[in-house]
Design goal:
This protein has 138 residues and is α+β, with helices and mostly antiparallel strands. The protein has helices spanning 12-48, 93-99, 110-134; strands spanning 2-4, 7-9, 61-66, 69-73, 80-82, 90-92. It has one domain (2-134). 50% of the residues lie in helices and 17% in strands. Helix 1 packs antiparallel against helix 3.
């Protein structure tokens, strides 16, 4: 017999029920931690964004697509400008800042911040999962 989650486990059905609850709890914890980390990453991207035009930092946003699925975006309507030449009539200058152009050196802010923060994000999620599992005292 295993004592877990305040109840005695007498067989495989009860153990499966404990694991089902544990998966749901971990998914909820993951979602909460991902939201915290995505917002922290977005704030770091805002701080790293070039401020020469003033609008790029304000366009960094976190979008929740589904549980445990967050997307960070920058640019959009506020940073799109009409171009004189080229195939497309408008160009998002957030991309020009990130990658540079023929006339302008790159001022990367998005991907360097992502690369710098992604391991911290993974470590914090894994630490939260381990804490949740240890709290079971199986």
């Amino acid at each position: 017999m295993i004592d877990g989650l305040g109840a005695r486990v007498t067989g495989p059905a009860e153990l499966e029920q404990i694991f089902r609850r544990l998966r749901a709890d971990i998914a909820a914890d993951d979602d909460a931690e991902l939201e915290i980390q995505a917002n922290a990453m977005a704030r770091a991207m805002e701080a790293a964004a070039p401020h020469h035009e003033g609008t790029l930092a304000t366009t960094v946003k976190v979008i929740k697509k589904a549980p445990r699925h967050y997307i960070i975006v920058a640019g959009g309507a506020a940073t799109r400008k009409r171009v004189k030449r080229g195939r497309k009539p408008v160009y998002d200058y957030a991309r020009a800042d990130e990658f540079g152009t023929v006339d302008m050196a790159a001022q990367p802010f998005f991907f360097p911040t992502y690369r710098r923060k992604k391991m911290t994000l993974r470590r914090r999620i894994n630490a939260r999962r381990r804490a949740r599992i240890k709290a079971l005292k199986l």
